[in-house]
Design a protein that fits this description.
By secondary structure, this protein is an all-alpha fold. It is 75% helix and 0% strand. It is built from 5 helices and no strands. The chain has helices spanning 6-29, 37-53, 64-85, 92-118, 132-165. Helix 3 (64-85) packs antiparallel against helix 4 (92-118).
């Protein structure tokens, strides 16, 4: 595994800040929104982290992590557009939540991959992208994302319909 560059450290540290603020927002507000300070910080950190990921080429070229960074930028942009402009009316909040929440999945896939390929130092957990342990983590994250998104949509439907009724 190549040594971490200064850009890699910057990317990793801000990525951790992004994840902490996202989980805080989700636990406190049930969604990520620019209406909260933690939501604003998450969106900003996510844009910076995804942008910096596009400049990390220590794995030999434009790869899956770069594609995830592009997907992250698309998803966060979609979340911002849905939150600010409400292009789909009352359904915009669902697309906003889906856009922002999907960025968590896009953060977690390269994060766990890098973690398992780097640690413990000198004897990492995995030495290949094809390792079943890595595939298991990716599948678990996808399942957690799908369940959490379903719960979030249910909460939004209940909360949003109560707000419309009042």
């Amino acid at each position: 595994m190549p040594e971490m560059t200064l850009l890699g450290w910057f990317h990793t540290i801000l990525g951790m800040v992004a994840l902490v603020t996202a989980f805080y927002s989700l636990f406190k507000y049930k969604m990520i929104s620019l209406a909260s300070k933690s939501g604003k910080l998450y969106v900003l950190m996510t844009i910076v982290v995804a942008g910096s990921a596009l400049g990390i080429y220590n794995q030999g070229g434009f790869g899956i992590a770069h594609w995830l960074a592009v997907l992250t930028l698309v998803a966060v942009s979609g979340g911002i557009v849905m939150e600010k402009f409400k292009w789909f009316g009352r359904f915009s909040i669902y697309f906003q939540a889906l856009g922002y929440s999907s960025t968590l999945l896009f953060h977690m896939i390269p994060a766990i991959t890098d973690f398992l390929r780097r640690l413990p130092l000198g004897d990492p957990f995995i030495d290949s992208f094809e390792d079943p342990l890595l595939a298991g983590f990716h599948q678990a994250f996808l399942l957690i994302f799908l369940v959490a998104t379903a719960l979030q949509m249910r909460w939004l439907r209940k909360n949003h319909s109560e707000q419309v009724a009042h």
